Amino acid sequence: MTRTELDxxxxxxxxHYQGKPFNAPNDAAVHSNGSIWFTDPGYGxxxxxxxxxxxxxxxxxxxxxxxxxxxxxVVVGDMRRPNGICFSPDERKLYICDTxxxxxxxxxxxxxxxxxxxxxxxxxxxxxxxxxxxxxxxxGIRCDTDGNIWAGTGxxxxxxxxxxxxxxxxxxxxxxxxxxxxxxxxxxxxxxDRLFMCASTSLYSLYVGAQGALKx
Length: 216
Known about the structure:
The protein has one helix spanning 43-46; strands at residues 2-4, 10-12, 16-17, 20-21, 28-30, 36-39, 62-65, 72-76, 82-87, 93-98, 110-117, 121-130, 137-143, 149-154, 162-166, 172-177, 182-188, 194-199, 203-207. The chain is mostly beta strands.
């Protein structure tokens, strides 16, 4: 886990847990208290396609890095492949994608949500939304100012490629269809109402009728 400074230098924040190297951290969300919450599904060491093949030395956990002690703690340890992650606008909830279905159809392809207690721990984990059609999964996710969850989706056939939007209660309320799998998304522009979508070989953008929650 690194931070690129304004002058271009790179600061290593943490590169191991309990003396063992992380598998291959994937996504991160920063709380207003400065803590960094990140997922470690290990895709970067499963093969040489995304990184360098290596053995797993740690479980596929979700961690919280304390800004003061620079120590990490496991906040979720029971997900098959924890992937995309984001906070709700008020930071009272944390959403995490489980893309375990990449290991087989018997594993999860849903988004889970947790209650955030004291900005430091998670409680009451539950399934927020199942991703479809078929074995589609959600990768990168972002929240808008109304608490809706926007998820880059694909891997379930052409009908799943693009972005799916879920209301705060988990109801699917919209889709943006793309001709390619969409992995990661981000709100940008002067008013944070332009959605940028990173797909398999292309970067797409679309002005939408929503505003991204401020990402710290």
